[in-house]
Inverse folding.
């Protein structure tokens, strides 16, 4: 992976405590899995940002390499990759996701 | 189920059985639910896998999913457009039942 792209991603995930790489936007998700994840984070009620990988060709390929993960959405909390849609759903069902997210969001800026 | 997605499902079944010796395995083809959507037009199938294996013992959810993604890396590049995973140890499976 090119250094410039890696630095761009490093920057994105450190500057945004809760960041979702998705297909589409918060308002118009363009994939059922992205939509499901966005709804879960809306429900938790912490601020989060999204990156629309359909609009960013370099990230669409780059994030697969960076995360070593073949699909989207990809979810980063506190600069760490936590997984895709199934993992987020399962963590949410167990009540673990809100804790992890609130801890990261509460960590001082 | 189209012949193509039936072949893919068969391939997934073989790869997972060979590597993870699952106690229980379900390969569910959801492709028909997505006919006409962008990913379906690209030709990839949508699948849900339920895998119950000893191999997952002591592994985080992320590690389990990484294991399965790695096994199916080739298929994920071409024939699988979307893959939903349920990964359980036999103990976790027993608790759910």
């Amino acid at each position: 992976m090119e250094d410039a792209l890696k630095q761009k991603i490093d920057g994105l995930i450190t500057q945004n405590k809760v960041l979702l790489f998705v297909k589409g936007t918060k308002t118009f998700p363009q994939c059922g899995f992205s939509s499901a994840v966005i709804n879960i984070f809306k429900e938790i009620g912490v601020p989060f940002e999204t990156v629309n990988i359909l609009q960013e060709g370099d990230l669409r390929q780059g994030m697969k390499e960076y995360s070593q993960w073949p699909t989207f959405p990809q979810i980063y909390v506190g600069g760490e990759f936590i997984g895709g849609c199934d993992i987020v759903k399962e963590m949410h069902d167990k009540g673990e996701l809100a804790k992890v997210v609130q801890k990261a969001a509460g960590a001082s800026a | 189920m189209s012949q193509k997605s039936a072949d893919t499902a068969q391939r997934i079944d073989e790869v997972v059985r060979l590597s993870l010796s699952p106690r229980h395995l379900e390969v569910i083809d959801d492709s028909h639910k997505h006919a006409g959507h962008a990913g379906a037009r690209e030709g990839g199938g949508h699948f849900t896998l339920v895998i119950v294996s000893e191999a997952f013992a002591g592994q985080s959810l992320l590690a389990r999913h990484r294991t399965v993604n790695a096994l199916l890396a080739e298929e994920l590049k071409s024939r699988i457009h979307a893959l939903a995973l349920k990964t359980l140890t036999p103990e976790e499976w027993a608790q759910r039942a």
Summary: The mean pLDDT of chain B is 88.
